[in-house]
Amino acid sequence: MKQPSRPTKSKSTERRKTRAELNLEGRERKRKSKLKGNVAGNRSHPKVTQQQGNAAPKKSDPRIGSKTPVPLVAEGKVAAAPVANVHAEPEKMTRQQELRMLENDPRLDQFLDRLEAGDTLSGEDQTWLEERLDRIEELMVLLGIDIEDEEKDDEAEEDMYRLLKGQ
Fold first, then answer.
1. Does the residue 153 lie in any domain?
2. Residue 127 included in any domain
3. Chain CA centroid to CA 102, Å
4. How do residues 153-165 score in pLDDT, each as one tens digit?
């Protein structure tokens, strides 16, 4: 039988390292990494360097860093806040919206309930209440709403029910 041909080894290939050689290289790498950095206590006992002349050496704390200011916001991304118009007019509400808002005011309801219960209001509260009630009345006149018409309508409905029951 014919034997399979084996590829010839080239002279450029290196031989493989043995396990002992690999272990030795690993220990060397570890020893080098352990020796990096400063010795223990270096920060609290810094080297004293002699300056030229007879000037006394300055005591400086190596923990204190640079005094240069650090920008807190990245440059170029700072957007100026839009300046609000000082003389901007408030949004105009329609008369109906204003009337609804005044009628649904919880403070107004609270004061009216207190008056119905027989309590007295302070001077400021009384003037505030009168201003609101006057404004409600003014809006109702402008919108053509008449309180008396609603009362008459209720009476007319009651009359209709009586007529219907009577038949």
1. yes
2. yes
3. 33
4. 677 777 766 666 6
Residue carrying the six token digits 């107004």? 108
Predicted confidence (pLDDT) per residue in 104-143, tens digit: 889 888 888 888 888 888 889 889 988 998 988 888 888 8
Q: DSSP H helical segments within 18-78, as ranges? A: 19-34
Residue pair 143/99 in contact (Cβ under 8 Å)? The answer is yes
User: Rounded distance, CA 76 to CA 73, Å?
Assistant: 9
Predicted TM-score of the model (pTM):
0.37
Residue 32 placed within a domain: no
The torsion angle over the Cα atoms of residues 126, 130, 133 and 137, rounded to 10 degrees, is 170
Q: How far apart are CA 56 and CA 92, in angstroms?
A: 76
CB 103 within 8 A of CB 73: no
Domain that holds residue 143: 95-166
